[in-house]
Fold these 2 entries.
Entry 1:
Amino acid sequence: MRSNRAKVRAGVSLAATLPMIAGALALGIPAAHAADNPARDTLKGTKPLWATAKADKGATSNSAQVKARVYLAGQDAKGLAAYAKAVSDPSSPLYGKYLSAKQVQARYGATTAQVKAVKSWLTGSGLKVTEVTEHYIGISGDVSAVERAFGTQLHNYAKGSKTYHAPAQTASVPAAVSSAVLTVTGLDNAPHKATHDDTLPPPGAVFKNSGPFSSYYGSNTASTLPSAYGSKIPYAIQGYTGKQLRAAYGAGKYTGKHVRVAITDAYASPTIAFDAGTYAKAHGDAAWKTSQLHQVLPSNYTNTGADECDASGWYGEETLDVEAVHAVAPDADVTYVGAASCMDNDLLDSLSKIVDNHLADIVSNSWGDIEANQTPDLAAAYDQVFQLGAVQGIGFYFSSGDNGDEVANTGTKQVDTPANSAWVTAVGGTSLAVGKGDKYLWETGWGTEKAALSADGKSWTNFPGAFTSGAGGGTSKTVAEPYYQKGVVPDSLAKANGASANRVVPDIAAIADPNTGFLVGQTQTQADGTEAYSEYRIGGTSLAAPTIAAVQALAQEANGGKALGFANPAIYAKYNKKGVFHDVTDNPTGNGLAVARVDFANGYDATDGLLTSVRSLGKDSSLSAVKGYDDVTGVGSPAAGYVQSYLPQAHRKH
């Protein structure tokens, strides 16, 4: 399962670096002897890493039921990856020569004969075909039928405090259908869920920020509170608005006119139209036009409980994403595509809807999981969707995570996924200072350390305090270095895990720090039980992703409306161009940076008192924003020249 960008995520990696079909495994014989029988081909990665001999609790009952998906490779998987690369590379003669959804299906989709052959094999093994789509064949059946079909036994394995079934050997398929099968998911029943990358209050209960605030960075100094880093510090921003973000990231005259942006999350906020309209009116954003905001929703929802996906927790995520995109790109057409749950299968379906129907050119995704939870089978399925999007001119933007290097969260240094995919644009986070007159002052990498005010009010306890949150980033352990990062990403990062160069996250960055965050408006249940619209400040790379998606909408407008597609090759090609990116560093003023923050102890009013703290900026776990490319902000954030860099050559200012 996957979760909304405040806490969890699930698996993806680069299809080019993870061969999907290799070797052989004979039905009913040990994996060690797979090479003895060439009649079957293995599906790499279908046995999860946690299915170890030590954790093995014995064979799964033959009568137990399994639901799975067999993803289809299509006619030309290698050709799809090659064309996706060529059409996205500014140095390629095929750059920008996108295909229609119909052309993609005709050239790369599964043929009728392939689908028929795969269905025949599955039903012949005793499995029931429950669904057939352009991307996969859904199946169900008992364990014995699954074992016959995929040439492996299912065993029960301990994983943490729970037990799940999983293949005891890597799954395989008959050689006769192996070219038609990309991978299979669902042979293990451990949960794969995504989280949203910010600390969102459940919309069922009101959340409000206490003051004092700054309206712009430094507008209100905390003169009665202790100093930090040798000087008095400002109060935290009340919450930046679209006007301030547009100025910071060089929007100029562009508004995203005639550009389509899609947003994926799980579930759907029942008050989104009212909230988005109320917020825009309150903060001077352009009013939403008729039919400018669309929703594409499933017929029903699943896994809605608090112990599964916590459906209500996703409402605020949708609210943030929709309002942030509109604030920065007020004329962009916005389509919200809600998944039936936070599980991978449902999130994949929402992404596939966008690709199959070309609902947008730019897709913002504020959810994911840690890389350790990704599995190559799901990685293959996700990357296939990303490649199918790339050849149509669709770009996917994923937030990089909110837990820095993940050590404090998981005990292991790692990146998040799907942001680790080489086929998406990973969006990191910054702390943003916008000054008087909407002037851009500086950014640091987003990383927060917090210290509380002492009991006597004269000092900060254990200053600068403990790490609380920060932009995700670092070096993937599973995805090879993509060609577009070579020559830009330092070897010290690319080879951080060994001799081989790997993918480094993120690619680009924008505002994420909740202490310099964005103001959103949402209908919430107030303390007296009534429902009412109210506003609060929010952050996380869940804010950075829709902000960058909106900036890309402005860039597409500047590009004459022509889709930008998979953006990474173009982003890295602009790396050394003057005025295109803000080169973000952790201490831009040289004096240390912090803000004072006052919060309601109960989250909504002063009844239970106030909590005062100092939040240091630019302290992202073991990650550092330094001069040049770094693992907190990538190439940096968009500067005044970024949007204009997409103007046709003849129209650029010199």
Entry 2:
Amino acid sequence: MKKVTVLCLGLMATMAAGAQVQLVKDAERAMKSGESAAKVAEIIKPAASNPETANDVQVYFIPGKAAFDEYDKLLGLKQFNKLPENGQTAMGQDLINGYTFFMQALPLDSVPDAKGKVKAKHSKDMINALAGHFWDYNGAAVDMWSAQDYKGAYEAWNIFMTLPKNPAVAPKIMNLPADSIMGEISFNRGLAAWQCERLDDALASFEEAKRLGYGKKQLYDYAMGVAKLKNDSETALAWAREAQPLFGHEDAAYTGEIINSYITRQDYDGAVAEIQKALQAEPNNSQYYWILGVIYQSKEDLANAKEAYAKALSINDKNAKALTAYGWILAKEAGDAADAMPATATEADYEKKIYPLYREAATYLERALEINDEDIDTLRTLENVYYNLKDNANTERIATLIKTL
């Protein structure tokens, strides 16, 4: 009985292996008859997880070739404006799937046989297909980005960046792009990664873009932004330090990021030294004086903070942040003075000593509001000012604006 059981198991295993081999043949037949790439991949999928066929190059070559064939067919339709609905996205996905399958097939096509000889049956065709479609990956990524398929755009751009590094494919690529072009595409890849929340991949793409010579301001801005999304303050600071000497003269955000790192550590002397260094290079930079004021305010040195904000406004009277900060200082002075008033103080006393400060604060804050009517700090300070002035109409006006944010 035991021998019969063993024999039956052997027959079953042979039948199972035969079934998987038949799947490969069925998939090849479907590919040659023009079935969709998705259908071919579906037919052959079980063979990829079966030990008897998992290492058969055909299991990956067939669906990969079907994907590239389908892309070429759709490309022909596109040239005559006859693409079916969602054809652009399908073309991009075909290129991605073709690459994925071929990358699995290539190592299996170079496995030595029993005699130690390597007989690559499909490698040449696969390498030529990958190299021949190299530039198509960039076009597909652009189309997928336009369709808001950011994951697909990232994958297509990633393949575009990867193929020139493949020693088998690179020599076959016609017109390899210059580093400057690759740098810009790596930046685009980073944007796509950011959009689909692959933040580590986004930062890696931005780093490669910089290494390849892409040095536009937006690279540093997005890299800092992504690092902050990751709560990676050290990386954000590193990008800010690189950007500051390049673009600090047109955007104080980099200096602000550097200064904020000092403030976070409560190293106020270091923060002052850093901003003073920036001011030596640009003594008429209004934003730098506003940052200096923020440093002094952080260490509760309001007298020097007020002086710094006043200097910022003397350089640029439309510096909204300095207007808000100066208004806040005046409101603070008014509040402190009110707290010091004796219990016997009259309304006339307030009119003489307190209300003028609040009205002056309101003037600066209203000017800031004219420039940016969505700044919550300006609105909340102004609401408090009008409340203390017992100006109900303006208090309600500002409260309404706050509710709309």
